[in-house]
Amino acid sequence: MKPMIIFFRKSIQLAGILALLGSIPLLHAQNTGTGSLTLTVSPEATVSTTTSPFSTSTSFSDYTATQTLNIRLRTTSTGGAGTISAYVSTDFSAGGSGNPSVNAPPTGDTLKYTCGAVPSIGSGCVGNPTATTASGSATSVATFGQNAHTAQNTPATLAIIYTLTNDPIYPTGSYTATITYTISVT
Amino acid sequence: MQWCALVCLAGAVAGHAAVTTTGQNLSVTIQPIAKISVATPNVTLAAGSGVFASYTASAVVLQYKVRTTTFGTSSGVTLRVTSDFSPASPVTGPSAARNELTYTCSNATVPTGTACSGPITAGSGSSNVLTFAAKVCSGLGNSGGNNCSASFPNQISVNFTLLNNPQTAVGGYTATITYTVSAT
User: Fold this and answer.
1) Does the predicted interface ipTM exceed a cut of 0.95?
2) Residues of A with CB under 8 A from a CB of B
3) Per-position b or e across B135-156, b if 16+ CB within 10 A of its CB
4) Using one digit for the tens of pLDDT, what is the confidence trace for A76-110?
């Protein structure tokens, strides 16, 4: 009989615990609030460059150098556009004495450029333009249409191949010119 | 007989002066409770300095009141993006769904909670802003063994940052954030 008594006592205790649990209200409270985040996205663009130095492959063949433009841009969906223009902001030299120069070169010498692979989002330069030192007459390097976007993590690239006349009159030495690119978008 | 009448009258008066008292119980059950409001409900994300710098907003200030139980260890404040940036179509807009929206937390006034550090990616699922410890309350001072704060209501600031993705179309966009406070 003793085991039976213990069984009944346990059952009564368990029933009491369950009844107690049933009387406990749900101990949980929750409340919410809302807010908004608003922004206006505008056209933006940036360009950076990497450059290889001028070199020549055979005697008195023209010097060539490549500048690669890394482009990130966003143009307006409807009616937007973008351009990249370039000019020689620092010449190889002031000219004279046979020195290489874009602004005052020895007779017939030029600095020209062509465009390499053109990003799918725009159009590169056409033909073989001659570089200029006049910022007001900067020449076009690339154009972009409306709703043009580069990828978030991978900028578009555009290779510009420069060609400088290899004139025997040039004094030996090292010369450096600086090209300034301007990108603008709407 | 007259003497008896006086004595008997006095005895009767003494019998009416008996006083009885009764009691009534007042019971109260203190429940966990929490309430939240957004003090700065509408904030604007502005472009950072520099081309394609991320957009940042002034802090979203959340104000809340809370009381948790001694075993309430699953209490806190969360947020989720209930409406992603719109319009999303037909152009490509900014997107929390693409993990472009993140946040950090600052200026929490509750001394017994743990504010998020981050940056944490905000999305359609709930993510943590603040975790309450057990047995905390707002505004009663540190008394009675509870971890209560002197400030009332309490507050915490949430600072959002949105990626400035070149693929995002030009235009205006709005997203809705829902903040939830819970107490157990």
Assistant:
1) no
2) 25, 27-46, 72-77, 80, 147, 149-152
3) bbbbeeeeeeebbbbeeebbbb
4) 999 999 999 999 999 999 999 999 999 999 988 99
Q: Across the interface, do B173 and A39 touch by the CB < 8 Å criterion?
A: yes
Look at residue B2 in the predicted model and tell me its pLDDT: 55
Q: Is the dihedral of CA A75, A180, A50, A128 positive or negative?
A: positive
Q: Is A41's CB within 8 Å of B173's CB?
A: yes
Cα–Cα distances in Å, from B59 out to A35, B38, B78, B104, B107? 12, 11, 16, 10, 10
* pTM for this prediction: 0.79
Q: Do A40 and B34 touch (CB under 8 A)?
A: no
**Interface contacts (A, B; CB < 8 Å):** 145
HEC secondary structure over A33-57: EEEEEEEEECCEEEEEEEECCCECC
A-chain residues within 8 Å CB-CB of B93? 41
Q: Three-class SS of residue A108? A: coil
pLDDT computed for residue B87 by the predictor = 84
Confidence of residue B84 (pLDDT cuts 50, 70, 90): very high
Q: What is the pLDDT of residues A53-64, one digit of tens each?
A: 888 888 889 999
The whole-number pLDDT of residue B13 equals: 52
Question: Would the CB atoms of A74 and B168 count as touching at under 8 Å?
Answer: yes
Q: What is the nearest CA distance from A26 to chain B, expressed in angstroms?
A: 9
Residue in B with minimal Cα distance to A76: B170
CA dist B154 and B158 (Å) reads 14
